[in-house]
Amino acid sequence: MIRLLYISTARERHSPAILEDILRMSRRNNTAANVTGLLIAGGNRFLQVLEGPEQSVQSTYDRICQDVRHRAPVVLKREPIKERAFGSWSMGFQAGGPTLPPTAGISDQLAALMEPIEDPTLRAYFEGFVRQHAA
Ligand SMILES: Cc1cc2nc3c(=O)[nH]c(=O)nc-3n(C[C@H](O)[C@H](O)[C@H](O)COP(=O)(O)O)c2cc1C
Prior knowledge:
Layout: E1 2-10, H1 16-33, E2 36-42, E3 45-52, H2 54-65, E4 70-80, E5 92-95, H3 106-114, H4 120-134
Parallel strand pairs: 2-5
Antiparallel strand pairs: 1-3, 1-4, 2-3
Flavin mononucleotide (FMN) is lined by residues 22, 25-26, 29-30, 39, 46, 48, 50, 60, 63-64, 67, 69-70, 91.
InterPro entries: Acylphosphatase-like_dom_sf, BLUF_domain
Protein name: BLUF domain-containing protein
Domain BLUF: 1-92
């Protein structure tokens, strides 16, 4: 199994209707493909973790990249895993914080997105990632 984390930029302001549509499709397809994960939408950014069998995650990500609702996806991490960290959701959702100016570094961008996250396990995952990335 692998876990893939990417960040992208929304083409339009996040709206409840667009997010609902994305989550509905994601939950249906990911359940069928044995993919789990989490989507964070904040400011004009999406941050998403996908995990599951390598082929399933890759084909899901390839399809997501074609989606006109966002642009410029950047893979932040792609790693082999033995266990899922987001196994309880076919696609969980978390509202993220505001977008910083593009001049802000990726670690600050991620910190701003994660700011509203209260769940300690989720925070720990992303903070670990930011630390690793900054190192
Ligand atoms: C930010 C973002 C995240 C998405 N995440 C997923 C996902 O986890 N799984 C998925 O199947 N589709 C996801 N989608 C939707 C896909 O891009 C695509 O529209 C959908 O998979 C097509 O499904 P269909 O072929 O069954 O109509 C996402 C789209 C966006 C913009």
